[in-house]
Amino acid sequence: MSNILIIYSTTDGHTKTICERIKNFLTNGNFVELLSLEDAKKVDLYNFEKIIIGASIRYGKHSRELYKFINLNKNTLDQKKNAFFSVNVVARKPEKNSAETNPYINKFLRLSKWKPNKIGVFAGKVDYPNYNFFDKYIIKFIMFITKGPTDTSQSYEFTDWSKVDDFSKEFKNNY
Predict the structure, then answer these.
(1) Which of the listed CATH numbers 3.40.50.11540, 3.40.50.360, 3.40.50.880, 3.40.50.300 matches domain 3-124+159-174?
(2) Distance (Å, rounded) from C-alpha 97 to C-alpha 4?
(3) Going by C-beta distance under 8 Å and a sequence separation of 6 or more, which residues neighbour residue 164?
(4) pLDDT, tens only, 85-131
(5) Would 9 disulfide with which of 4, 22, 37, 141, CB 3.0-4.6 Å?
């Protein structure tokens, strides 16, 4: 039995949904705690044997708070079995849906200086009806340029849930 911490940094909630799926997968035989990045700042990471961090992209960037958290806790993270995954809509494209080919994973690894044991990337969600006016039309423009969906009356989920399950299974069995 392992003590596992899953930390999420989310913009619209989809990364949390993915983390909940991972938690449900890992809970059998383990104690798993799911915390927002903000709440994770208040816990002692040494109490956990394994740590997973999932983070979303908005306008081409992970949050500054994510980088601050990782920089403050890098030594502890390095001593634990760990994983990181990014949730971004670019990963909807087959040529950008792996840790090796996703530009946001590459950027994350350059900027964070942390080298997670396991790295994943999952396609996210475009949820036009729940965006504010500004986000809706900026994201629509980005989707137009990248040949994505532009009907703002709809939501589009691109997450391959079997890929999330495979990530969870590999983490459970190998880390």
Answers:
(1) 3.40.50.360
(2) 26
(3) 18, 21, 22, 122
(4) 999 999 999 999 999 999 999 999 999 989 999 999 999 999 999 99
(5) 37
